[in-house]
Each structure stands twice: as C-alpha cells, then as structure tokens.
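your task:
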Amino acid sequence: MFKGVYCALITPFKNGNIDFDALGLLIERQISAGLEGFVLLGTTAETPALCFEEKKQILDFAVAKINKRAKIIIGAGSNNTQTTIKNIDLAKTYNPEGILIVTPYYNKPNLSGMIKHFSLAAQANIPIVLYHIPGRTGQKLPPAFLSALLEAVPMIKAVKESDYDIAGITKTAVQHGEKRIDYICGNDDLWPVFLGLGARCLITAAGNSIAPAMVKIYKLFEQGKTQDAMQVFRTAYPLINGSFLEVNPTCPKYILAKLGLCSSEVRLPLGEISQSTKETLDNLINKAPKELFI
C-alpha cells in the first residue's frame, strides 16, 4: 500500500503566520522531484504549535494544490484520545491514503490503553500508520507489545519506524514486514538499512530540501542497482546528517531558506539554530551537488 518517498512537509511561516505562497512553491518543487506522496501535519510541520483552524487551513490549501498528483497521509495523533478522534474527523474529509497516529507521548499508556486508543482511531475506517518514535514519545514498544497491538487493531496497516535500535527494527521487519504491515522508514539516515530489510517507503524530513536524492536512491534500489543507490546516499549523507544537527525541522527550514524557497522561521517553543550550526550547514550546502536539491 505505502511505497516510494513521502515528504513530511514543513509549515513555512512569515512573521508568525503561515506563508501559503511558500507552501505552494514547496509542494510544486516536491511533486517535480517525483515524490510518491506527502505527509501533512506531521511532526515536521510543527503541528503541536498549530491551532485547529490553522491545521484546517493547511489541509484545505495543500490538498487542493496537490490535486491528486501525489498521495496524502495526514497526521492526526496526539496524547489525548478525544483530540486524536477530532483530528481524524477533520482528516477523513480529505480522503487521505492513511492517517498517521503517534503512540501517545508523555502518558506512556499500557497495552490495554494503547489498544483502546488505536481501536477508537480505527473506527474511521482509514488505514492507520502507527508512528513509533521513542525519542519523542518516551515509550519504546517491545516486539511482543507491538505484536499484540497489531493483532488487536487490524486497521493498522503500516508502521513508521523512527527507532534506532537496529536489532529491534530487524525483528519487526522479519515478523511483520511482509505478511502484516508496510514497514516505513522514519529515519532518513537509515534509508538503505530499511531498503535492505524489505521496506519500500520512506517518510522523509530531509527530503524537504533533497527530495530528488531520496527518490533517486529508491528508484535505483528498485532497479537492482544497489551500489549506485548507495553511492547517491553517500553523496547525500552529509546533508541528511546536517538536517538533524538540531531538532527537526529547524535545520531543514534553514536549508530551504538558503535555497530561497521560504523563511527559516520556526514557531515557539522551537527557536533559531545556533551560529555554529548555520556555518556547518552553509558549508554543506555550498559543497553539495546542485542536483540533490529541489
């Protein structure tokens, strides 16, 4: 169901407001790069700092701009079940391919609570992409926990994996990757690892600026040209790594600003990146082949 490269789209701001001109430009550049789809209102969009009306405005604009030229996954998760359901009610009016539901952060729910939370989300009858990102949620799902959750909630059709536990990632890929779920790479720097484990989808934050590189890696791998794919990854890796020198999406926005595509402005509680990070990114941008960028 989920294949190819999806961009976790940023929310460009200008003087505190959403910059819809820049958002439209970014969408066009991403589509031209050959993306399979977009994740709207994901972590990279700074969704926790957006009000409900702003979320609706972004969806209205982005879905109309994309105009079925690419697939759409909409982020709807939160650590409040009723808020999650409200977000899903909004998302389903746009007929997305899937909804991205993060495991509730801070609450750290037990198995029975997690099953109930996702079961209520499943009532919308939209494929769920479970978002597993222990670094942000504070909760790592052990393999047995995840297996029980997948068995209890068949509407979970994919897992966006953003853990760095290679052994755990491998175990999940072996147990569930083909017969039960689409296994989605959620860490740009592990894209070749996930491809090797059978994953065929990437949700990328670094791809906001270097989508052409991410798409090329995928296409070469699918053609069996694994060494060529790895060579593209090696070339892109400094920028991939640089995109996460500070918390996402601060660095991707700075790179886009240097490309003249939007402001680097982020919304509190995120703040401006340090001068040393800016200098590092400037150096990486200047050295990188231009064909890597949107």
